[in-house]
C-alpha cells in the first residue's frame, strides 16, 4: 500500500483538508446542485473515513507497538489539531466555492494513500464534480 511510505502527519493533513472541503460544500448551493453536493459529500466522507480508520488507525498502532491506549491519545491530539486547522482555514477562506487547488490537493492525497474500490470511485466523482465549476 502506498500509504505505508507516507508520513502520518502528511496523511492527517489530507484528512483535515478533506474534512474542511466537505464542511464548505454545504454552503456552496449557488455553485453546486443538490445532487452534485450529495455526490461530493459522499466521496469526501468515504475518503475521510478511509483515511481515519483504514490508514491512520493502523499506522498509529504500528507506531506505538500495538499500544492501543497510546494510539488513541495521539488520535485525540490529531483531532484537536484538526479543529484548530479547520478553524484557521475557515477564517482565511470564507467563500463557498471550493478552489480547484483544493480538489487537486485531495486528488494528490488519494494517490499517496492508495484509496481503492468504491472509495476511490466516489472520491474521483467528487473531485471531477468540484473541478468542473
From TrEMBL:
Protein name: Uncharacterized protein
High-level lineage: Bacteria, Pseudomonadati, Pseudomonadota, Gammaproteobacteria, Oceanospirillales
Amino acid at each position: 500500500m502506498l500509504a505505508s511510505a507516507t508520513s502520518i502527519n502528511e496523511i492527517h493533513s489530507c484528512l483535515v483538508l478533506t474534512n474542511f472541503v466537505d464542511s464548505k460544500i454545504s454552503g456552496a448551493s449557488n455553485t453546486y446542485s443538490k445532487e452534485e453536493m450529495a455526490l461530493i459529500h459522499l466521496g469526501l466522507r468515504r475518503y475521510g473515513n478511509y483515511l481515519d480508520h483504514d490508514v491512520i488507525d493502523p499506522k498509529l498502532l504500528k507506531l506505538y507497538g500495538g499500544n492501543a491506549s497510546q494510539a488513541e491519545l495521539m488520535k485525540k491530539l490529531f483531532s484537536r489539531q484538526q479543529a484548530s486547522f479547520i478553524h484557521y482555514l475557515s477564517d482565511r477562506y470564507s467563500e463557498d466555492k471550493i478552489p480547484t487547488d483544493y480538489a487537486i490537493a485531495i486528488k494528490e492525497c488519494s494517490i499517496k494513500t492508495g484509496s481503492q474500490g468504491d472509495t476511490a470511485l466516489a472520491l474521483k466523482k467528487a473531485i471531477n464534480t468540484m473541478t468542473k465549476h
